[in-house]
Every structure is written in structure tokens, then in C-alpha cells.
Write a structure and sequence with these properties.
The protein is α/β, with parallel strands linked by helices. The protein has a single domain, classed as 3-Layer(aba) Sandwich (Rossmann fold), CATH 3.40.50.150. The protein is about 25% helix and about 30% strand. The protein has four helices and seven strands. A seven-stranded mixed β-sheet has the order 3-2-1-4-5-7-6, sandwiched between helices.
Length: about 160
């Protein structure tokens, strides 16, 4: 679900790029960044964006994205199978890049830990809402920590979890 104000969109763990391409086509004025650690995935995403004429989609490795870059929307089908610690590290680093008023949408299967992931995010100070639950999949909406303002948008603020 993209809004009119979503000008900077991140597809985190883009795979072959379906989410990035759809986001780019539905929001042609947005800058859509597709990020993955896998070079083959980035190549496939770039090719699919070109074939589908989603000219506002760019691809990058995570290390090539400026840490100061903020996103209005993060879309992610998280790589659950990397393990809980790696997944938590990945989400912690990218969710802190949400702009003020931004939102993340995560698609996670119930049997792959959607409920425990939602609890972990809540424990870190994020507000988490389950928007949809269908065929075992959950769509989680995640707001920045601190009640809608990203910790990284506030100078001098510690990144400890909010009670």
C-alpha cells in the first residue's frame, strides 16, 4: 500500500524485483530503490524494471546505500531463513532509516514467525499493526520508533527501546 506522499520507497531484499517493479509502476513519481546482497537478484531486478518500463527503479547493494538516506516506505518480504539474529540485525538497521511519518510493510508467514517478529518489533519500540492475514501470511505495518518519528531523525536521541 503506497500513499501519495511516498516519494522514497525501499524494496528490502528485492529478489527478482516484483515488489520494486509494482511500486515503481504504481508510483511513477517515487524514487524506488531495490536492495539485495545477491548480485544475481540485482541483475534480475534491473532487467525486470527495464522490461516493465519502471524507469524510477534503481538497484543497489546494501553497503552502497548512504546510511543517511531516509525512506517514506519500506516494503519487505524478509529473508526469514537467514536466522533470527541476522534477520533482527537487518531489520533494525533498515527500519531506523524510516523518515518521519514513514511506514514499513512486512509480509511474513505465520509458520515462519510473523507473530514473534511482531513482538520483537514492539519490544524495540515500534508500533506494529497486522493489516491482513490470509492463507497463513500476515501483512505487518511497522511505524518508526518513538511514535511516528524515526530515532535517526532526532539528533541526540539514543536508540534504546521505548517502553
Amino acid at each position: 500500500p503506497l500513499g501519495a506522499g511516498d516519494r522514497r520507497v525501499l524494496d528490502l531484499g528485492c529478489g527478482w524485483g516484483p515488489i520494486a517493479c509494482v511500486a515503481g509502476l504504481r508510483s511513477p513519481a517515487a524514487e524506488v530503490l531495490a536492495v539485495d546482497v545477491n548480485e544475481r537478484a540485482l541483475s534480475l531486478t534491473a532487467g525486470n524494471a527495464k522490461r516493465n518500463r519502471a524507469g524510477n527503479v534503481t538497484v543497489a547493494r546494501p553497503d552502497d546505500v548512504d546510511p543517511a538516506h531516509r525512506f517514506d516506505r519500506i516494503l519487505c518480504n524478509p529473508p526469514i531463513r537467514v536466522g533470527k539474529n541476522a534477520l533482527h540485525g537487518l531489520l533494525a538497521s533498515w527500519l531506523d532509516r524510516l523518515a518521519t511519518g514513514g511506514r514499513a510493510h512486512l509480509v511474513v508467514h505465520r509458520h515462519l514467525g510473523s507473530d514473534s517478529l511482531a513482538r520483537w518489533l514492539t519490544d524495540r519500540g515500534h508500533e506494529v499493526d497486522r493489516l491482513v492475514s490470509r492463507s497463513g501470511y500476515r501483512l505487518l505495518e511497522v511505524q518508526p520508533r518513538g511514535g511516528g518519528e524515526s530515532q535517526s531523525d532526532r539528533p541526540g536521541t539514543e536508540t534504546a527501546s521505548t517502553p
